[in-house]
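Example record used in the benchmark description.
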Amino acid sequence: MTSDELKSTVEEALDEIRPFLQSDGGDISLVSIDNGNLVTVKLEGNCVGCSVNQMTLKSGVEMTIKKHAPQIEKVINID
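Model output (structure tokens):
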């Protein structure tokens, strides 16, 4: 998978989870994909400072991205 294809696949995964975040007043954007296996995202809106955002990141975002792109090993959020 090329880097452009990987980016497109990760964006598709984010599009899948985005409605759930938006229903709570939040959102998410892709910042970067490094070394083909580390995704950096930015949680936005009500997701910033939310007490369960790390659970959302691991249980929702990371799981969904890995479902679409199994080569991704880790997803991190930047503040």
